[in-house]
Amino acid sequence: MDTKAYIVLANGQVFEGKSFGAAGCVTGEVVFTTGMTGYLETLTDPSNYGQIILQTFPLSGDYGIIREDAESGKAHAVGYIVREWCREPSNFRCGGTIDQYLKEQGVIGVYGVDTRALTKVIRDQGTMNGRIVAFSGDPERDMEATAEFQSIMHNLILNPSLGKHAGKIRLLEEIKSHTIENPVAAVSRSATSLEQDNKTVFEQALRYGAVPVDANGKRFDSYEAAAVKADGARVVLWDFGARVSLVQELQKRGLEVVTVAASATCQQILDMKPAGVVLSTGPGNPACCQDIVAEVAKLCGSFIPVLGIGLGHQLLALSQGAQTKRLPYGHRGESNPVKELSSGRVLISSQNCGYTVVAETLPETAFVTFEGVNDKTCEGIQYRSFPGFSVQFFPKTTGGRQDAGFVYDRFVDTVAAMNMAAKAQQE
Question: Rg of the chain over CA atoms, in angstroms?
């Protein structure tokens, strides 16, 4: 039997729906994503730690849960809102329904909501916190939800004209003031347990054509051919909440990937004698990671090739004196157009970010390489003072676009060139 669920936004608006997945009460930042597929990747993306995900595409769960496609070992979102979920998914790799998965992971779900109207609120007023109250139908398990629901009913639904009533103010202030403490530390290394050896990763990806391409755009048909440039060079992945697909893209290209936690220092990384360093994706406000920013700044002085992606892109910019700012409602989904300024070509990218680098604050030793087509935001940076570059988007994802896989190839080329120069000096 369907049970009720309610979404209360920090602005006082209430949306009624039905409960699926886990039941209970949860508060988080409500963000919307436009992806038509990749719902498991979204739920398990460490960048979504503590967030309530609003899916704009009306149907979710149609191909079930394919655990091999998860971006980490567990769900990091705390809530999931959809228009409709599929009870009978169809896929030869299906391992259960999305309802079963949400219950297993303790993620509270709501369906039957006017997701279009809810998305419009976020677009017009900006990303905001919200609270989900979802019932299971079991009175004992629903005690917390019932108490919360009674407060919502009294303060927001039955008496919407209460105005500055103390109970209403207290309820909304509680939702607004909700914050996620130390999100990067909470998710660092959450995906590394899913790593496999390089050749296995390549061969599994080859089945679906998700492998690197050569200079002519032809897919490599063997790991040995794809890995020849990297030649087993060791790179350190500085993990601020990496997606497992990021690790795999490096592995497919023949790089030896050593992962370190977000708390690692520059010296600890240099002691590993890496040929390059990758600054990973991750959650939260980059400006709150000042300790990490200071260590990244030290790293840039070592003249080691650096690639930043997502949060790593923002932290790298901050380390060079640039500034970041919050986007009104973020870039989340699989169809975000970005323009490569050097060539003029437009790529369709996968993104999951709530902040952006302010291009005007970049130092003279850096320049923008990619720009958002829709809002002119900074989507990529090249640095002149050290061999480093970064992108805001995901160059390649399991559940999304493959357009920008060349970003990883450029990093491999940089690592290979630096290695060749080092060997020449030794001779």
Answer: 22
